[in-house]
Amino acid sequence: MREFALYSRKGRTDSRFTSLREAGRLDVVHECIVASLFLSHGIRRNVVFHILLSGPPMPPLHLKIDGATLRNVRTDQETWKVILKNVLSGKFHPGVSVDKISFEALLKAKADEASIYVLEEGGKDIFKVAIGENPFFVLGDHIGLPKKVEGYALRYGEKISLIKQPYLAASCINILNYLLDRKAAI
Ligand SMILES: C[S@@+](CC[C@H](N)C(=O)[O-])C[C@H]1O[C@@H](n2cnc3c(N)ncnc32)[C@H](O)[C@@H]1O
Asked: Which structural domains are found in the chain, ordered by start?
């Protein structure tokens, strides 16, 4: 299994919004959902995408999107605005769950079963790292990971870099999926 966790510093934790961008940059979350879970005309059934929402009014909130059970989705922003609003107001959508687990508790739970990597420009070159079975990649949003959160994640994992330039979080996910797909295909 392959997992991605996006720490969204400002992402709203209720359904009272009309645009993803104005909801604490949930548009960035949408971009990362598409990058992590979608193939052309298909869903990556081996991927789980976690979002840690830390915005108002009731942080933290953990959204889990499981490719294995995800149904009734398209890639466009409007579709995901409706899905996110629904699950944030307590409605059911197949493959999407919401709970109050903290990022720290999630990482601690994953540490036993996954290899944890924190994505950061200044980390160790990914081509010098042997990515383990069941990788769990931690990424910051448009602002970046808070230092405290990064420090906590690094108790369980290592910091890796794709390149020294800062890329969009969604671009990083695309690159990671590509590298892992290639590795699996060879
Ligand atoms: C748009 S970047 C944030 C840039 C922001 N200026 C900062 O201070 O981190 C979003 C996230 O993508 C990941 N990221 C961006 N570029 C990267 C790179 N070259 N290598 C590894 N991770 C990267 C990091 O996790 C980062 O927090």
From this structure: 1-186 (3.40.1280.10)
